[in-house]
Amino acid sequence: MSTFSSLGLSEPLLQAITELGFETPMPVQEAVIPHQLTTSQDLVALAQTGTGKTAAYGLPLLQKMDMSHEVFSPRAVILSPTRELCLQIADDLESFAKYLPDVRILPVYGGANIEPQIRALHHGIDIIVATPGRLIDLMHRGAANLEAVHTIILDEADEMLSMGFSESIDAILEGVPANHTTLLFSATMSKEIERIAKNYLHDAKEIVVGSRNEGAEHVNHIYFMVHARDKYLALKRIVDYYPKIYAIVFCRTRLETQEVADKLIQDGYNADALHGDLSQQQRDLTMQRFRQHRIQLLVATDVAARGLDVDDLTHVINYGMPEDIENYTHRSGRTGRAGKKGTSICIVHSRERSRIRDVERTIKKEFVRGTLPSPKEICSKQLWKVIDDIERVEVEEEEIADFLPEVRRKLEWLDKEDLLKRVVSREFSRFLRYYANAPEIEEISEEKKKAKGAGKGKKSEGKSEKRKDGHRAEGDHEPEEGYTRFFITLGKVDGFYAREIIGVVNNRCPGPKIEMGRIDLRPTFSFFEVPEEEAGRVLKGLKGLTYKGRRIGVDIAEMANNSVEAAPKHPKKRAQQRFEQKFAPKNTKKRRFS
To answer: pTM, whole model, 2 decimals?
Structure first.
């Protein structure tokens, strides 16, 4: 087994990392450190977040830093996608350089006053840890001179590219000397990463820890399939079944993130939200509280959680599956670090099943189909947690001695059995009350889904052919069970997307917020689904809807289909004409609807 000393690290670095608790090198460190100490060759390293990459590139960088003569310009640049990761990398390097007092390290990032960063650069810096946008700003101001840079490191390069920093990275790489060394670290090997490597790295060595585009080795992948309306109830059951859970709950939108966090807080959970609508100060405070375990559940968007590096997450919960597989890889890679086991849970509805299969093929790991725990199983878990917590209480006899006589006198009328019942009821009553009458959650079985699909195939036989324009007729999609499908004459050309449709429906329908189901967007019209019990409220609320002086048509999609099927000749054309006569604005060219 390798040791850090066998990798060739100097004594000051060994002393610092020993004090930090480093014992044996992790695979990426074992592969990268000797290579970087003995060569200046460019490097592409593919490894998951949390596998020890900072030490892998940071320790050899510090050891090779020549401090024999004074140089005011930075000699190394480390680029990271977010302010949070930038600060963390700088902190780690400062810890590694504890016994290298002459090495000067500076984090520079947006969202902070730029003047102190400029002053620090003028006093002389050896290593800049930067977000791309702020470094470009400093370069344009003449504060960051990169003429002496011999090493540039791109940490979490795939994250930076997905956040839109491609042009900034190009500009930075073009602004450093031609004979520099470039180290590129990424969790996945996307086409954009390959482009950067091809354009700016020369004769690069590739080191792969695990395999390309693979999820973390120590992560179990589980999914629960429920109806869309039951996703929050399923989330509660999962969280309740793991009393010691410490997790990030990923949502797809800022609105959904805030709503889920608000619900959890209202239901008594130690949760908070993290998304782009919060100020930087609010986000910093939330992340600080989460790292300190003062928040148990962090509900976050992908963008807001980037750079949030927490080693001991027990779970990652995908409340909504991400649009692309790379985002899933980043999400799941946040748990199962440092050799610990982690779990990535997906709460999906039937239409997201194919995404699970796509992820399985990419990460080459099979998802386990989970069964939601029963109320009895959850209550048993919570009860044992209460008992375990009581057993672990450290009794400070000297501190409570003066109060014990009064406590005994106050409780002397209770026997041991009564006292136990009261303690357990006090600590446990919230779960007992909720699960005594907990709503039922219908899990969608594979057999039921296949049977429903087969039934649908028979029902729609002869109707699923494509139209001449390449689109399928709206009739060949049926709403999810328990939902009603609506048709609205607003689409992408009107600037209406999912968020706008959700806003229109809820703004026009007074009362409790309507939980939307599937939304299908077309250029000139759209479909959306709402719970069956809300269909009447939606019809009433959207009656007489206008947009830019134009009356907007809204109807239940099934009713429109029925009228189409009833027409004897050219049914779609006749239905279209009737619809246009009713809803098209006067004195304007008619629009076609399908």
So the answer is: 0.55
